[in-house]
Amino acid sequence: MAKRVMDSSAGDGSQIEIELKDPRLAAFLAWLIPGAGHLYQGRTGKGLLFMICILGTFFYGMYIGSGRVVFASTADFFPKRIAVQGGASVRGRWLEFVTDRWQYVCQLGVGLPAMPALVQRSRIRNHKAPLFGSDLMRPPYNAIYLPPPAETDLYFKSIDQTDANNTVVHPDEFSKWNYDYGENFDIGTVFTVIAGLLNLLVVFDAYSGPLVIAPHESSAQTSGNKKE
Amino acid sequence: MFELLLANGDPHNWLLAVMSIARLWYALPLIVSVSLVCAATRHEEMNAILSHAARFALWIFVFMGIILGVILFMSWLQ
Question: What is the pTM of this model?
Answer without folding.
Answer: 0.83
